[in-house]
Amino acid sequence: MPICAALASTLLLAQTVLPAAPAPLSVRLTSDVAECPSLLQVQSALRQVLGDGQRAAGGWVLSYGRDPSAPQAEREASVLMELIDPAGQGLAVRQIPASPGDCVAIASAMAAVVERSLRTLGWTRGEPMPESARPRNLPQSPAPAARKPLPRLVLGAGPSIGSSSRMGANLLLEARVRVAGPFCMRLGGGVLAGSESQNVGSGKASVSSRTFTAAALAGFALGRMELAGGPALLLAFDHASSDSLAQGGSGDREVLAVGAAIGVAARLSPRWRLSLGLEGFRVALGANYVVDLAGKKTVVLTPFPWEGIASAKLEFVPWP
């Protein structure tokens, strides 16, 4: 009996002291790397440290690939990984050195970072995982979000409205390319041609205008938001004609305006965003249209000295 009581006491003490085994945890993978390491290699490495958890569409995400902000010569020498919690916040960002023949070792190193990061949240002690990767007892640092690069290519379309009757309402198409770091080049244009007319004596002069914009922007990511701003140019191609005048005619001109553009975008998903933009321009170059009215040269359809454009766009991120 004393021996049985001792064994029972030992078992009870072991159950009290030993931590509960962690439940298997599923981590979804996203990657732009085709071969080294492959998704199967990373899945196998994760399964060894996390167990074989039930796969789900949401939850924890491990994203890895080449660092788009690194120089081209150094891009293939490392793998940039980020562990994201179910709330969309980054828990860990690491730069893993990569060699062509070390694919399995790279996958194991990534799995070790995931396991070590989850250990700080109590997963290895059998505690339930929080909805957010920010533990209450750990300092909150914006460093992982600051290191996340801006998208390389963004395409957008949506309505725009100009401050002048010549610009009016239009459908705007834009493309933005990140050149280096936070600096981007953006090109855009209206699908429809604007128009304006002016009565001249007993006749009328009319102009149709197509406008295009170019901007050099600096962008900054703040969580799910992105702010951008910088100098911009507006180029308008005008075609004018006169009607019911003694000497009818037509002519073309180009109008160049300089100004600035600002915008804010909200990320709806990894590929879709909603953005608002505001631009202001001052005409720098532009010829006048002149008609002969009773033997007197008369200037018509003068370019507006100031122009403002407000827009709302639905944007798609095809790369990365």
Give the strand order of the largest sheet, numbering strands 1, 2, ... along the chain: 5-6-7-9-10-11-12-15
Shape: elongated
Report, as a whole number of angstroms, the end-to-end distance: 70 Å
Secondary structure tally, helices: 5
Summarize the structure in words.
By secondary structure, this protein is an alpha+beta fold. The chain has five helices and 15 strands. The longest helix is centred in the middle third of the chain and has 17 residues, at 103-119.
Sequence-ordered SSE layout with sheet pairings:
Layout: H1 2-17, E1 27-31, H2 39-50, E2 60-65, H3 72-75, E3 78-84, E4 90-97, H4 103-119, H5 143-147, E5 153-162, E6 169-180, E7 183-190, E8 194-200, E9 203-222, E10 225-243, E11 250-267, E12 272-286, E13 289-293, E14 296-300, E15 306-319
Helix pairs in contact: 2-4
Give the structure's gist in a few sentences.
The chain is of the alpha+beta class and 320 residues long. The chain has helices at 2-17, 39-50, 72-75, 103-119, 143-147, and strands at 27-31, 60-65, 78-84, 90-97, 153-162, 169-180, 183-190, 194-200, 203-222, 225-243, 250-267, 272-286, 289-293, 296-300, 306-319.
